[in-house]
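Predict the 3D structure for this chain.
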Amino acid sequence: MQFQQLHYFVAVADTRHFTRAAERVHVSQPSLSQQIKALEKELGAELFSRARGNVALTDAGESLLPLARRILADADTARREVQELVQLRRGRIRLGATPSLCTGLLPEALRSFHDLHPGIELLIEEGGSHDLVRELARGALDLALVVLPLPSPSPALTTVELLEEDLVVVSSAAASAPRRPVRIADLRDEPLVMFRHGYDLRELTVAACRAEGFEPSFTVEGGEMDAVLGFVRAGLGIAVVPRMVASRAGRDLHVTALAPPGLRRRIALAHRSDVAPPRAARELQRMLLGSRPTSGPQG
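Done. Predicted structure below.
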């Protein structure tokens, strides 16, 4: 008994027609009929009655049908399981993340994943949440780390919150650092080094300043995370950055908490709702969710 024969048998049982069954399984009708006869000969019983052009299951056929469906389903499950194991030995993950997460969270997480699955190619795209949501929607990414709430409602995406993180103020260690937690209102008279347009941290900081009734003053704007930290080190101004980034920035930067209620950001893993991520991407997602970092002490 062959899987192919069972596949043909189920097709005839479903369609009750040999020609239509042959079309469904993409073989010629004589070939399908020959395989059904071979199966009947091996089992020692007719599976179909063919009276007056009507095709019906015999008692033997009725007994075989649920068993055949189960055998084929088990074979398909086994095939998928093996394919998923193969996907963890080779393949790729297209992961999007905001630049601050590429600096703070991802290096250690991706190193751990790579140690377990060295055959998986990791393709990283940096961008703001708005750009990453667009790339997810068009199928250019498997997963993305985005800042909540999303820039626009997107029912086609599934998001799972990963962490919530404090924002802090960084200043040059060579300059006089604030001696107490900084209030948002204190930023009114401070020169800020500001990220480029489309950067989630820019939008969050500017919105907080406007909520206090003022427009922030920029000495330098338009940089990515590494550039902003470099400008702060050079004494060009202060910046509001995630605590996770600040903790890795080095001794030449001074870190000061924001006074309560402070500023926090919520990070989530996002993927398309209508398409399951590849096996390797699901494994990376599981690892990230299983080792959610703490946000550290608050303000």
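The longest helix spans residues 59-87.
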